[in-house]
Each structure stands twice: as structure tokens, then as C-alpha cells.
Amino acid sequence: MSVPTTTSSAGRPSGRGAAEPLLSVRDLSVTFGRGRKAFTAVDGVSFDVAPGQTVGLVGESGCGKSVTSLAIMGLLPARGNTVTGSVRFDGDELLDLPGDQLRDRRGRDVAMIFQDPLSSLNPVVSLGVQVAEVLQRHRGMNKDAAMRRATELLDKVGIPDPTRRLKEYPHQLSGGMRQRALIAMALACEPRLLIADEPTTALDVTIQAQILALLKELVQDSGTALIMITHDLGVVAGLCDEVNVLYGGRIVERAQRHDLFAKPRHPYTGGLLASIPRLHEERGRRLTPVPGSVADNIPWSSGCAFAPRCASAIEVCRERTPELVQDRPELGPDRLLRCHNPLESNPMDEDRDAPRGEETDR
């Protein structure tokens, strides 16, 4: 059954019923260095994001999530890397845009919330000047009008006493306030696409929930397309419509959120889910982490990069590279999987039936 298309207050279609993707990424690859020392951080990644849709890029540190976002934004260093593939935004190829045209798009049509707000904000410039600068650059506002709008934005993202905060510097704000300030800067020009790179890292759970609620409200109210980059599957469960699981720079599984949590098919996805502590379980139950680290990969050209860490690996996994193909249709629409020996049951269900560890008194 098709999902009806709704129209946001901004006049853009929202929800999964949108006919055309706003952002279309095809075979995106990023290689650092040259020759024998070359390292491919992103390897043939493809996905779409429609207006009003939230798409998650999920995986451990080093899987290529942040590099993908920086390549989309055109923020990778001019030297020392090679970017290939296609990144089309509203029909325009971003990788081919001249620098001045790309700078015009950034902040106005495409914005990004960075992972570390303290290093992303200028430490010697007041918060109000930094937020107002975006409006002056892309909306042509004068200083007074930009500062009034900056006050409204800080209030919108939940920063108390915004008029006073405009005069303060980043080091005078808490981590949660700095992150909210970054969100205010990203939302200043009402971008059509927002990329959030681990926006809740190092924040307490209360502030995390407030920031995620703010992003969810943004998508619902304005029809903004959102790419959520995270390693936290709890964030994915509460926010994302579609999930792309990355490993070794490649997408290894794609599914709708509910389908992915109900029946993960790739052993890496299953391992990520099995390693999450669950509040309803009794004390003393041991977690089941994914063994090894990302340094244990083998090259994709030699087989499956996850094979050295995979409990389900068979001989073919170390001999032939798995392709990203359509999974069994009965498991959910548009599911893609890159695996020779996929899971047939949910590791989280198996873990519930496993014997519990010995409890100790505190």
C-alpha cells in the first residue's frame, strides 16, 4: 500500500510518499593517499533521501560514516584524497560544482551539525555573531535583523535567556547548549537537507532526548530531509525511517527501521543489536559484544571484510566478495543485504533464552 504524500508548511512534500529523492548518492568512494599507501574510507556507497525522510548511517567508528557526510558537503581537504561517484542534490551534481557555488549551497540548502561543538564553534567570537553571520551571508540580512533572528533561533532550540547567551562565548556554555547552538546555526536558513553527525555524543541522556525530539519535530514540521549519522541504535530506533548499516566503507545491510530491528540479517547488524544493554533484562546478564575491532578487516577485494570477526563466516566469505543484493522480499520492502551466510534468527531473541550469568550483590 502506498503512503500518501503530505505537504509541509514550507511547501515541500514530506514523508516517504515523496516521488523523487532530494539527495541521490551513487557509488560514492573516498580514497586517502596514493599508491601502496592508499586507503579507501568509503567504497561505493549509494542511497537516497527524500524530503521529510530520515535516513540513518550506522556503524562503528572507522566504518566511513563521517567521511561520507564530509564528501557530500564538499568539506574534505582539497589535497590528499580522491572522491569519485555522484552526489546529486535536487538534480544538481554537487561534486562538479565550482567552489563558490558549493559555498552558496552550504548553509542555505544543505547544512550539517558536527560531532564536536566545542571545536566547531569559533572560541574567540560570540555566539550571536556566529549565528547571525549565517543569516547575513545567505539571506542578506543586516546585522540588527540577523541578531533578532538569531535570538529567535536560540529560543527555538531551547537555550534559556537567548538574549544574554548571544553575547557569550562557546567556553561559557555547557555541552548541551553548544550543541543546540550548532543546531540553531544549521537551521538558520531553513535548509532542505540536514546532516547530523553524532549530534548527541558526550551529552547526558536528558539533553540527548531533547535534541532528538527537536530534530524529529524539524523533519515533521518543515519537510526537511535528514541524514542521521550515529553508532547508537537507540537513536536509530527513535528517529530513522530507513537504516543503512556500514562496515569497512560499504553498506552491508539496508532496511526500514522496524524490519531491521525485528529481523536483522547481516551478522554485523545482529552483533550491534546483541551488544545493547536492555533495561527489562535482569541484572547479571552478560552482553554479547562484536568480537575484535575494525582493524581486523580483510580487503573487500579478497572476500567479506567482516569475515575475521564473524561467527557465521564460512569458507566462501574469505574467498569471494559478497554483493549488495535484494534480500528476501517477505522480510520487508526494499531490503538489501551483502552477506554469503545471513542470519535466520534474531540474536536478541536467542540471548533472552540463554542462561543468565551469576548475579553478585552490590
TrEMBL record:
Regions of compositional bias (Polar residues) in chain numbering: 1-11
SMART domains (UniProt xref): AAA
MF terms (GO), sorted A to Z: ATP binding
Principal location: membrane
Xref: SUPFAM superfamilies: P-loop containing nucleoside triphosphate hydrolases
CDD domains linked: ABC_NikE_OppD_transporters (cd03257)
Alphabetized Pfam families for the sequence: ABC_tran (PF00005), oligo_HPY (PF08352)
Keyword field contains Cell wall biogenesis/degradation: no
Region span, Disordered: 1-20, 328-362
Domain of life: Bacteria
Regions of compositional bias (Basic and acidic residues) in chain numbering: 328-337, 353-362
Compartment annotation: Cell membrane
Residues in ABC transporter domain copies: 25-273
Coiled-coil portions: none
Gene3D superfamilies: P-loop containing nucleotide triphosphate hydrolases
Membrane topology, record value: Peripheral membrane protein
Keywords: ATP-binding, Cell membrane, Membrane, Nucleotide-binding, Transport
InterPro entries: AAA+_ATPase (IPR003593), ABC_Ni/Peptide_Import (IPR050388), ABC_transporter-like_ATP-bd (IPR003439), ABC_transporter-like_CS (IPR017871), Oligopep_ABC_C (IPR013563), P-loop_NTPase (IPR027417)
Signal peptide: none
Entries under NCBIfam families matching the protein: oligo_HPY
PANTHER family hit by this protein: DIPEPTIDE TRANSPORT ATP-BINDING PROTEIN DPPD (PTHR43297:SF2), OLIGOPEPTIDE TRANSPORT ATP-BINDING PROTEIN APPD (PTHR43297)
Family indicated by similarity: Belongs to the ABC transporter superfamily.
Name of the protein in its database record: ABC transporter ATP-binding protein
Source organism of this protein record: Ornithinimicrobium kibberense
